[in-house]
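Worked example

This section walks through a single chain of length 451. The input is the sequence exactly as stored; nothing has been trimmed or padded.
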Amino acid sequence: MKSIYRTLLVLFIFAGLASCDDEPVGESYNDDYNPDAQFRVDINGETFYADQYGVYTSEEGITEIIGKRNDGARVHFKITGAGEDTYILNGSNSGSAFYYDGVNPEPYDMTEIDTVGVLTISDYDMANGVSSGTFSFKAYREEGEVVIDTTESDSTDTPTPGIGLPDTLDFTNGSFTDIPLTVEGYEPEDPTPGDTINKFQVELDGELYETNNTQANISIENGLVIDTQEDSISMTLNVFDPEIETVDLDGENPGGNIVYIPNTEEETYFEATEGSITISEIDYTNNLISGTFTGVLTDSENPGNTIQMTNGSFDGIAFESDISVDDFMFANIGGENFNAFNLETEEGEAGLITTTGTNQSENQLQLTFPSSVNEGSYTVSNEAAFSGIYYKKDDETEEMIPYYSVHNSGNIVITEKDGTILTGTFTMSVRNDAGEVIQITEGEFKTDIAL
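Given that input, the structure is written out below as tokens.
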């Protein structure tokens, strides 16, 4: 019923907007008023805020987006397609933009514009009936006769919106946020009474194991551990170095493990010997984690006895953590992710500061700056200021092998300095005494250099 109500309202809105009907329709077109909804754009530097707005997709797959001001001025998009994507606006049937100034019935359009515009739909939520996105474009209308509105009895000619506009308008910083969306023919399924989506679930040889009874923790020592239990069945999922990525459960250096106990009153357990775990989201602000997994579980006592895991997922699992995101060091080192928290800062010689991060594998990455460093980009050196050292642990000898930064091989960029808090990025090459070179890319860090 709610969906039908929203559909009828938005259809009414678009009919009114298309006919320039000024009948008030309100800021929201559905039964859940959203005070955060907004449609705005800068037109030649002046900000336009719409009083009415909406997105409508027809059964033919044509999407129209309109933002209209109460004085009749409106921005109108028409694209072929629907959904979250980036659409090129070039004045064709596949993507066009128009602007009506509220006075002249002839719109500004893109037929005489030699540059393309861009419309990005970043959120197209049919179930909740909202959409968000950004846009920019230029539009042209041949300058014609100035129109004066004299419909009122007032003897003084009163200029109306649109008077004195140039023939070309530049639309920049355009955005629409959580404005109502209607998709013709779409009807969301009503949930079955009592039906719930469990936070942790997986099919084991086709039999569903699902539970909301979970305990999760992320620590430097153990990585991510999710313990689950339902009746006498338990399953534990472990990712050694949790990051938004996929890790393998097999091979010489697996990135995680899964242990399944079909009956906690018995000693038999199954352990993952094939498969993968994908972490799709880690929210350290709200301490929530989501992901998927699949693979093969093998009986610890009978290797011939296996269980297939399919459609495994954990969604919005709450976790505890001793990791602080106030200081961190991330990088891709030789194709592998390096993640370190709780950095150590020490004072060096000649006014230098060293910041060191240690990951779960006990590898270390050290960056050196002058204590008086300011925001800016600095070329990497092979020693002293703006240098780096990567210490790689040898698994056999447990010896820490140093790799020193190569002069002029990259940059350390201080993007923000807030008191003694430094935030930045880095790239560099490092080389050991044997001449082996490792590339370090996608480096990010945040650290407090106060001693």
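What to look for: The chain has a mean pLDDT of 84.
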